[in-house]
Write a structure and sequence with these properties.
single chain, FAD/NAD(P)-binding domain, 5-stranded parallel β-sheet, 28% helix, alpha/beta, 564 residues
Length: 564
C-alpha cells in the first residue's frame, strides 16, 4: 500500500516537501493544496515586478500544476483551501474555491506549510481599495494594475523591513514619489542603529521621504495621517509592517503552539501529532546563540526544514543545528547583509560582548570600483567567540557575511577567523580580507592592546570639547573635519608631541581608522596611557551624522562631510 502524503501550502516549504518526498518514494501518493491561484512562485522576487526588473508577472511562477504532475507525479491543486484537519480520521476537509465544493482527503502523513500573513494594524481606512499588501503573485498584479490604471504618483510604504524597502526601491525605479514610514527609530531591524544610518542616508539621497519614529493612524483617499499629526501624500498605500504565522489550521486541529505564538515543532519538525509536520514561516525555530525560540520568515531555513521533515518521514537522520538569521538586501546603490547576534539582541539576552567597526576597501584600492566596506563584527567577552556581523557597501557584502555565518555555525573564535585562509585577487578583495582584518582588530581590543570609542559617542565628545586629533594629512583635513579637531598628521606627530596633552584623554581619528590606530600605538609606546582610537574614524562619523543632521537641522559637528 502506497504512502498518502498531503501538503498544505505550495510555495517554498510545501513545494520542497513534496519534491523531496517524491525523490525518496516513487510510489507515494502526494497531493499539495494551495489556496491561491499559483504554486511554487518566487515570493522573494515579487517587488521587482514593480520596476520591470521582472517584466512579466507570469515569470514569478516557477512551476505550475501540469509540470508538477508530469515531472514529479505530484497532484498540485490550486484554489484549494484546507479548511479543517480531522486528526481522529486522519483526513482533511478541502474547499475548492473554483466551484465552492468541499471534500475530504485521507492522509498517512500531513505537512503544514501555510506561511505567514501580512500584519494589518487596526487603522482607520485600512480596508480601502487603494491599500495593498505584497504576499503573492495576485497581490503584486493587483498593485501594479492599480498604479498603472489610476496613474498613481504618490505612494506610501508602511514598514521598513525587507519587503518594505524592496518595494520602495522598485517604485522609485518606476518613477514614483515614495514615502517610507517606520514606527521604530531605524530601518532594517537586523542591523544596529549605527549601521542603519548608512541605509538612512542612502534612502534619503535617493529621494525617498523617509519618516522614522512615527506611525500611521489614518488612511484617507489621498493622504495618510501620522501619529505626530503630519499628513503624507499617498494615492496608494503598501502595508509591509511585518507578517504573522498562519496558525488557523493548527489551532483548529488542537496542535500545540509555542511561546512565540507560532506552531511548536520538535527537532524533526513534527508537531505534537506524530503524523503531522510543520515547516516554514508558520513555525517557531531555535536560535542557536540566544537559546531562545523565535520566528524566522526566511526562504533558506524553510528549504532546509522541508528537506529534513520529508526525510524524517522515511527515517533519515537529521541534525537540527538551529538558526542564526542570515540575510542580505540591496538598498539602491548599497548592499547590506547581516548574520547572528546584533547589539540589541546581545543586550536583551545578557550576552557579554564587544564589537569591531572597520571600513577597509572591498578590493585593492587601485582597482576599478574599489569602495569602502563598512563592517561590524560582534564577539563574546571574554571568550572571543564570534557572535554576529553586519556589512554595508557597494561590493560583495554577502561573501563576507556568509563567511561569518559559517564561522558562527562552527562556534569559531576571533583566533579562528584570524587564521582563516581565503581566496585572493586584487579584483575581488585584499590579501588581508575584511573578515581577517576584523578579527585582528577584535583580538587587539579583547587583549587590551588599545582602547576605542565608537561612532555614536563622537558627538558628545565634540560637544564637550574633548581633545581630538585628526591624523590625516593637511589637504584631507581642509576638505572637512570635526569642528574642534586638531590636525596633527601621522607623518608629523613625532615632531609635535608637545602639542599633545598628557593630563587628559586623547582621541585620535583618521579617514577610516588605520592611521589613527598606528598613531595610538605610537603614543602608547611613548608613555601616553589615556589614548583612544575613534572606531570608524571620519568616514564612519560622517555616515552616522548625516541623515539626522539633514532631517533635524541640528548643528553639524563636521565642517564638511566626506563619504569616500
Amino acid at each position: 500500500m502506497s504512502n498518502r502524503v498531503l501538503v498544505v501550502g505550495g510555495v517554498a516549504g510545501g513545494a520542497s516537501v513534496a519534491a523531496r518526498a517524491r525523490r525518496l518514494d516513487e510510489s507515494a501518493e502526494i497531493t499539495m493544496f494551495e489556496k491561491g491561484p499559483h504554486v511554487s512562485f518566487s515570493n522573494c522576487a515579487l517587488p521587482f515586478h514593480l520596476s520591470g526588473i521582472v517584466e512579466n508577472s507570469e515569470d514569478l511562477v516557477l512551476m505550475n500544476p501540469d509540470k508538477f504532475a508530469k515531472q514529479y507525479n505530484i497532484d498540485a491543486r490550486t484554489n484549494s483551501e484546507v479548511m479543517k484537519i480531522n486528526r481522529e480520521e486522519k483526513t482533511v476537509t478541502v474547499k475548492n474555491h473554483a466551484n465552492g465544493e468541499e471534500y475530504t482527503e485521507a492522509y498517512d502523513k500531513l505537512f503544514l506549510s501555510p506561511g505567514a500573513k501580512p500584519i494589518m494594524p487596526p487603522v482607520e481606512g485600512i480596508d480601502s481599495p487603494h491599500v495593498f499588501t505584497v504576499r503573492n503573485v495576485a497581490d503584486i498584479r493587483k498593485l501594479q494594475n492599480y498604479l498603472q490604471n489610476e496613474d498613481v504618483k504618490d505612494i506610501a510604504v508602511v514598514g521598513a523591513g525587507y519587503i518594505g524597502i524592496e518595494v520602495v526601491e522598485n517604485l522609485k525605479h518606476a518613477g514614483k514619489d515614495v514615502s517610507l514610514i517606520e514606527a521604530q527609530n531605524q530601518v532594517m531591524a537586523p542591523f544596529d542603529v549605527d549601521m542603519a544610518q548608512l541605509l538612512h542616508k542612502e534612502l534619503h539621497d535617493q529621494g525617498v521621504n523617509l519618516i522614522l519614529n512615527d506611525a500611521i493612524v489614518k488612511i484617507d483617499e489621498d493622504t495618510v495621517e501620522l501619529k505626530a499629526g503630519k499628513k503624507v501624500p499617498a494615492k496608494a498605500v503598501v502595508m509591509a509592517v511585518g507578517v504573522a504565522p498562519e496558525t488557523g489550521l493548527a489551532k483548529q486541529a488542537g496542535l500545540e503552539l509555542g511561546e512565540t505564538g507560532a506552531i511548536k515543532v520538535d527537532h524533526n519538525y513534527q508537531t505534537n501529532d506524530e503524523n503531522i509536520y510543520a515547516v516554514g514561516d508558520a513555525i517557531e525555530v531555535y536560535h542557536r546563540q540566544t537559546r531562545q525560540r523565535m520566528k524566522l520568515p526566511l526562504a533558506g531555513p524553510a528549504q532546509r526544514q522541508a528537506r529534513a521533515a520529508a526525510g524524517h518521514m522515511y527515517n533519515l537522520p537529521h541534525q537540527n543545528t538551529g538558526v542564526i538569521g542570515s540575510s542580505v538586501i540591496q538598498v539602491f546603490d548599497l548592499n547590506a547583509a547581516s548574520t547572528g547576534v546584533n547589539e540589541k539582541c546581545a543586550k536583551d539576552t545578557g550576552i557579554q560582548y564587544d564589537f569591531v567597526y572597520i571600513i577597509p576597501a572591498d578590493k585593492v584600492g587601485l582597482m576599478p570600483e574599489s569602495n569602502p566596506l563598512h563592517f561590524k563584527l560582534l564577539y563574546e567577552v571574554p571568550t572571543g567567540k564570534i557572535l554576529g556581523a553586519q556589512a554595508i557597501g557597494k561590493g560583495n557584502v554577502d561573501k563576507r557575511i556568509d563567511i561569518i555565518a559559517a564561522m558562527i555555525t562552527k562556534d569559531a573564535t576571533l583566533e579562528d577567523l584570524k587564521e582563516l585562509e581565503l581566496c585572493y585577487s586584487v579584483l575581488y578583495g585584499t590579501a588581508k580580507d575584511v573578515v581577517n582584518f576584523a578579527a585582528l582588530v577584535g583580538l587587539n581590543l579583547l587583549n587590551g592592546v588599545y582602547k576605542q570609542v565608537t561612532v555614536p559617542e563622537v558627538r558628545e565628545l565634540v560637544e564637550n570639547d574633548a581633545f581630538i586629533i585628526d591624523a590625516r594629512e593637511k589637504d584631507e583635513y581642509e576638505n572637512g573635519h570635526l569642528i574642534n579637531a586638531v590636525n596633527i598628521p601621522l607623518s608629523e606627530f613625532r615632531e609635535r608631541l608637545d602639542e599633545i596633552p598628557t593630563d587628559q584623554p586623547v582621541y585620535v581619528h583618521c579617514r577610516s581608522g588605520q592611521r589613527s590606530y598606528n598613531f595610538c600605538m605610537a603614543l602608547q609606546n611613548k608613555g601616553y596611557h589615556n589614548v583612544y582610537n575613534m572606531s570608524g574614524s571620519y568616514l564612519g562619523i560622517c555616515q552616522h551624522e548625516y541623515y539626522n543632521d539633514q532631517i533635524t537641522g541640528r548643528e553639524k559637528i563636521v565642517t564638511e562631510y566626506n563619504f569616500n
